[in-house]
Amino acid sequence: MPGPGSYLIGEEEKQALMEVIDAGSLFRYGDRSDPKFLAKVWQLEKEVSKRFNIKYAVAMNSGTSALWIALGALGIGPGDEVIVPGYTFIASITSVIYARAVPVLAEVDETLDLDPEDVKKKITPRTKAIILVHMLGNPGRIDEIKKIARENNLNLIEDCAQAFGAQYKRKYAGNYGDIGTYSFNIFKTITCGDGGMIATNNEELYKRSFAIHDQGHLPLRQGVEQGSRTVIGLDFRMTELSAAVLLVQLKRIDDIKRRLKQMKQRFKDGIKDMNGLAFRALPDPEGELGTILTVFMPDEGIARKVGNELGGGVVADSGWHVYNNMEHILGKKVVDSVGCPFTCPYYTKSGGNVEYFKGMLPKTDSLINRAINISIGVFDKGLGSGFGVTIESTDDEIDQAIDRFRKVVGKYLGGVNS
């Protein structure tokens, strides 16, 4: 079980599920006067809004859906470009393509989040939005990216899939952009197996997001026909079962964050004296989640030897989180026969032409080729974090992992800093 919440599933979640099952109302809608309708999805949306101090939230079936719906709510589509990092979960990129817009890949910096300087270089007259992904629980350079978006009249989407509960300058991630998106699958801070959410302080974007996720309906319909639907939507609704589990897990978020920070600090203190190591940059060290400890080695050769011996490899090998490993993105293997959105006249006639190829982001490649992810709370080989500890690990177990790391790294980097 790879994410913090996965390890904590227990009797409370079972009881919450049985409460919904015994009531017999699993659909997110129902008659509020009927005691069998428990309105768990509505409760979840309200609780997240209250806790994160964001006005509106819409729960849905996945974080990928949340990204696609956010793009639709902002009106992004054919002819538009959206800047995304080359190091991210693939949904940040595929959601743009399914919105019929074109993803433009940008470099990450030592935060492993978007590099503001490269973002500036990637802006064209076709750019409509920036997706700032807070990778591995670390909020990116929000102030700089938000300033770039504002100065260029661009929408800003915060992809907080891996950063549910993270903060930046004492405000929760998702509060800074036009829309924030979250994920609740098994690799995330809290989980219901799979699920997602959008959050926004803009009422119009809330209404549009809700409509897109529910066949065009206005927010909070009572399960009856309303008419006068605002847009053509689809069905991405969350069930009462998923929301019941998440409501339980949400109560644990502060304890999860506290434990993760303690564990990460213990691990970092245990290796920070080692010669040749560098740590990932944290724009707000107090606000990041602490799910992953990223260490940079002096070069790729040493990083690969260390990573292979520890069993996690290097970050560059982490599957569908690295653009170089996304062969279907590099090959523009869309589902239609004509190659839309890349061949769309709205795009090509405006001078748009994007190409993807391995090695196109040299700064990103240099960083992730010599980076190793140590698991603190997210144990996911897909992130290159096949080595480390879990949220259930004791201090003795953490110390044992530190000792192993030191022994392996010591073979290639020598002793400690003098």
How would you describe what is shown here?
The chain starts with a helix and ends in a 5-residue tail after the last helix. Helix 11 (300-310) runs antiparallel to helix 15 (395-413). It is α/β, with parallel strands linked by helices and 418 residues long. The mean pLDDT is 94. The chain has 15 helices and 13 strands. The protein has a 7-stranded mixed beta sheet, sandwiched between helices. A 4-stranded mixed beta sheet has the order 10-11-12-13. Strands 6-7 form a two-stranded antiparallel ribbon. It has helices at 4-7, 11-23, 40-52, 63-73, 91-98, 116-122, 142-151, 203-213, 240-250, 253-271, 300-310, 327-330, 345-348, 362-369, 395-413; strands at 56-60, 81-85, 102-106, 127-133, 155-159, 167-168, 171-172, 179-183, 196-200, 278-279, 292-296, 371-375, 387-388. The protein folds into 2 domains: 4-252, 3-Layer(aba) Sandwich (Aspartate Aminotransferase, domain 2), CATH 3.40.640; 254-314 and 370-413, Aspartate Aminotransferase, domain 1 (Alpha-Beta Complex), CATH 3.90.1150.
Domain count: the total is 2
**Count of discrete alpha- or pi-helical segments spanning 4 or more residues:** 15
Provide the succession of SSEs. HHHEHEHEHEHEEEEEHHHEEHHHHEEH
- How does the helix and strand content classify structurally? alpha/beta
Uncertain regions spanning at least 5 consecutive residues: none
CATH topology of the largest domain: Aspartate Aminotransferase, domain 2
Give the name of the CATH superfamily of the largest domain.
Type I PLP-dependent aspartate aminotransferase-like (Major domain)
| Shape descriptor | globular
CATH class value of the largest domain: Alpha Beta
Number of β-strand runs: 13
Whole-Å distance between the termini? 40 Å
Task: Kindly provide the radius of gyration, computed on alpha-carbon positions and rounded to a whole number of angstroms.
Answer: 22 Å
Q: Order of strands side by side in the largest beta sheet?
A: 1-9-8-5-4-2-3
Task: State the major sheet.
Answer: 7 strands, mixed
| Residue share in helix | 25-40%
